[in-house]
Amino acid sequence: MAGDRVRQNKDQNRGKGQSRDVQISKALSLLLRHAAEKEGLKLNAQGYASVADVLQWRKLKSIKCTFDEIKHAVDSSDKKRFALLHIPSSQPTASTSTATTIPGSHSVEGAESTEPDTSTSVLEAPSTAEEQTNTTQQALATTDANPANYLIRATQGHSIKTVDAASFLEPLSLDDESKLPDTVVHGTFHGAWPLILQSGGLKCMTRNHVHFATGPSLESVLAAQQEENKDAKQGAGERKVISGMRWDAQVLIYIDIRKALKAGCPFWRSENGVILSEGLPVFDASGDAGGNAQRVLPVEFFDVVVERKAKLGKIWEKGEVLQELPAHLRSKGNPKNRR
Asked: Where are the compositionally biased (Basic and acidic residues) regions (predicted)?
């Protein structure tokens, strides 16, 4: 009992200085992307968890989080980090066509639900991306206020290995180039750039995928750096929300996605428009990748790399280092993870 109180106080202190909305959003991201298995929360292969179970998680219980606040976190997320799925309790599972989801919002359809049958799991969400995106586009309001009739998931960013990306992400392919984004860019920091080169490319690290944004375009970044009398704050990185990239990224790595796809490197698009890739397996000298091969998105797929914080412009292009980062930039650690 005393241990629970100590842990609760630590959780509350950790959120000091943050708004309640940020506390709830960060807690949901932690649970649904990384900590579900450790915390005993059941996820299905598509990453969905019961909202009723999520509300019972100690972190959210300690701050008395409500179902309305969960819905607000989904609806107000600047990067559309979460998706909520409504499963009317009259359905035995969520596999019928009346279960709908609207990424970044809560899905709605049907009349008011009755009390759920707790003997039936609602974690059988639609199993394909096509079913999940075949949604009702009308902004209807549901009267179902029972969290047990809803599922929630993070739209991307998972480190949980049991979450099957192929079941809810859209695969990108050279077979339909019209669906390929014009820009695929990974944002990183001064201290990480030399390490990326040394390691041969971008690695997933603790996550299941490397994340990429679809903007800003290379042309717009270079043009902005050339503008005279530019506002100093904006030049240092004005805070703009970009799904798939930290707003304060200092180094932008532009990817030749067509070259990468042609080489067999997989790419996906998430519900909130983030481009994802697990990279290619790294083979040893014998040509064996091993059962748990590390994967990397090789530097050979890097098109152009731009430093934007100090306005250095292009620092790497098509396999050639154009300029080294100054030592005082390389020595700095990455900024703390903040929104």
From this structure: 1-14
Residues 268-294 pLDDT 10s: 999 889 999 999 998 765 555 554 568
Residues 239/242/243/244 CA torsion (nearest 10 deg)? -90
Number of domains in the chain: 2
Domain co-membership, 141 together with 186: no
Long-range contacts of 16-20 (CB under 8 A, 24+ apart): 20/63, 20/69
Domain limits for position 187 = 169-330
* Beta strand residue intervals within the chain, DSSP E: 49-50, 82-86, 100-101, 150-154, 170-171, 185-188, 201-202, 210-212, 251-255, 268-269, 275-277, 280-281, 295-298, 302-307, 313-317, 320-321
DSSP per-residue string spanning 207-232: SSSEEEBS-S-HHHHHHHHH-TT--H
* Residue where a domain stops, chosen among 154, 182, 200: 154
Asked whether residue 160 is assigned to any structural domain, the reply reads no
How do strand 280-281 and strand 275-277 relate by DSSP bridges?
unpaired
Q: What percent of the chain has pLDDT over 90?
A: 58
Its pTM stands at 0.70
Q: How far apart are CA 252 and CA 41, in angstroms?
A: 36
Which CATH number do you get for residue 31?
A: 1.10.10.970
The reply to whether 84 and 203 lie within a common domain is: no
Nearest to 81 by CA among 137, 151, 12, 158: 158
Spatial CB neighbours of 48, under 8 Å, sequence gap ≥ 6: 85, 123, 125, 151, 152, 153
Residue 75 in any domain: the answer is: yes
| Single-letter code of the amino acid located at 223 | A
d(CA 239, CA 310): 16
